[in-house]
Amino acid sequence: MENLLIQQICLSPPLTKGDLRGILLTDYLIKSKLKNKKVCPYMPNFYGAPEISIQEVDRKLRTGEKFILLDVREKFELDKAKIDHLNLLVTPLSRLTKEKLEALPENALQKDGEIVVICHHGIRSALVTAWLRQLGWNRVFSMDGGLAAYAREIDPAIGSY
User: Fold this and answer.
1) Position 42 in a domain
2) Kindly report the CA angle at 110 between 107 and 111, in degrees rounded to 5?
3) How far is CA 145 from the centre of its chain?
4) Where are the alpha helices (DSSP H) in the chain?
5) Does a structural domain hold residue 132?
6) What's the CA gap between 39 and 103, in Å, rounded?
7) Per-residue pLDDT of the chain (161 residues; tens, 9 = 90+)
8) Which of 62, 82, 94, 105 is 20 to 30 A off residue 125, Cα-Cα?
9) Residue 8 belongs to what domain range?
């Protein structure tokens, strides 16, 4: 029963403030031994998108490497936790869904630039990464574990929820 619950929660990311899936999953992870593992142990990357580790993202940010950090979380999530950096661009998944490529900031439209897509747990970022890859972007990666893993293992000061 417990495994089925995790699989159901992991099937799709929470997109609205009232969606309880993320809360249920977070609560389960806090109370379990899985809290230091991938958020969705049964579907670590449902979309097959290439991933980049939180340690590598941290290194890139600290060394000033040129890349776009594309946050696809919703505004209410940004108010709770955020990596403040010059590389950060924000385009919520809800906006991408409606406006498609027109929602992307101009510098993210350059298919040869490197983009690291982030979200709360790495599910929505994997979706956006896979979509951009299908459209011809070759240097786009999903941050493994999302902002939750980054806050837990790299920088708790960015906040968490």
Assistant:
1) no
2) 145
3) 7
4) 2-10, 21-31, 54-63, 75-78, 93-99, 123-134, 146-153
5) yes
6) 28
7) 444 444 444 554 544 444 444 445 545 554 454 444 444 444 456 788 999 999 999 999 999 999 999 999 999 999 999 999 999 999 999 999 999 999 999 999 999 999 999 999 999 999 999 999 999 999 999 999 999 999 999 999 999 99
8) 62
9) 2-36
Q: How many structural domains compose the chain?
A: 2
Q: What sign does the dihedral 20-26-27-28 (CA atoms) show?
A: positive
Residues 64 and 115 in one domain: yes
CATH code: domain of residue 90: 3.40.250.10
For the chain, the farthest-separated pair of C-alpha atoms sits apart, in whole angstroms, at 46
DSSP 93-135: HHHHHHHGGGGS-GGGG-TTS-EEEE-SSSHHHHHHHHHHHHT
Cα dihedral value 150, 153, 30, 43, nearest 10: 60
SS3 23: helix
Closest CA to 108 of 139, 77, 82, 145: 139
Helices 21-31 & 2-10 angle (0-180, nearest 10): 140
Terminal-residue alpha carbon distance, the chain: 26
Task: State how far Cα 106 lies from the chain centre.
Answer: 20
- What pLDDT, on a 0 to 100 scale, did the predictor assign at position 32? 52
> Are 134 and 82 members of one domain?
yes
